[in-house]
Amino acid sequence: MIITVVNQKGGVGKTTTAVNLSAYLAAMGKFVLLLDIDPQANASSGVGLNVAELEKSSYNIFSKEHRADELIFDSFLTTHKVIPSSPHLAGATVELIKDENREFVLNDALLEVKNHFDYIIIDCPPSLDILTLNGLVSADKVLIPVQAEYYALEGLSSLLHTINLVQENLKPSLEILGSVITMYDKRNTLSKEVLNEMYKNFPFRIFRSVIPRNVRLTEAPSFGKTILQYDPKSKGGKAYERLAKEFLAYLNQ
Ligand SMILES: Nc1ncnc2c1ncn2[C@@H]1O[C@H](COP(=O)(O)OP(=O)(O)OP(=O)(O)O)[C@@H](O)[C@H]1O
Ligand SMILES: [Mg+2]
Predict the structure, then answer these.
(1) Please, are residues 238 and 228 in contact by the beta-carbon 8 Å criterion?
(2) Domain span including residue 206
(3) Which numbered ligand comes closest to the C-alpha of 236?
(4) What residues flank ion ligand 2 with Cβ within 5 A?
């Protein structure tokens, strides 16, 4: 199953969620591929890859130089694999303009590797560009991280509209898995208000495993580690573990 983590709003916890959800799913025995299609390559460096030195990346999918299975790197668990990104990927947006099949390049490339994994988790850039569109068209389901902050809900309707257009025109089977609330601060009334607003207005599942604001989650990527490796007992680690369990329970029901 391919899950794309998307929100065109920057810094809402997409990468933190993609990295750590994928890590806990792998630790629970699922075969997981973390696929980074953000030119910022934060998910790739977040699992310890030295992005500047990599010779292959998801860019080679979009430039059609390599098959996806040739781009897979080992990670910290045998059940966890990574296709990293690269700053070159920024150029793919322009290179794809003339490609008539441009929204389907990733989808087509993943067909052959899809069955080797229980889950492919795709981390998208903070935009609704052609890379994100490829992420959406490839997906079976979309996971939307929403930061528990004032302007959190702003932009959500244009995201839902885009997903709707993809469903109508490009990928009818695409489903919204739901939303995960990130950076929740229980001492902050604003966080509670955002959660209430989400429950009132968001017409899809909201995972009960809300991710708290936790500094250990910010520190882990600077060591190239997932929270599972860096501090699994932290509030952030436990929250992502709960999210992974809830995710599996929901999808296996
Ligand atoms: N639960 C959390 N608690 C504390 N800090 C967090 C949490 N989640 C994410 N962060 C931090 O917030 C910043 C943005 O998170 P992240 O990179 O995951 O967001 P993003 O949506 O992927 O950003 P971008 O849109 O740039 O790709 C990072 O510095 C990250 O470490
Ligand atoms: Mg990111």
Answers:
(1) no
(2) 2-251
(3) 1
(4) 14-15, 42
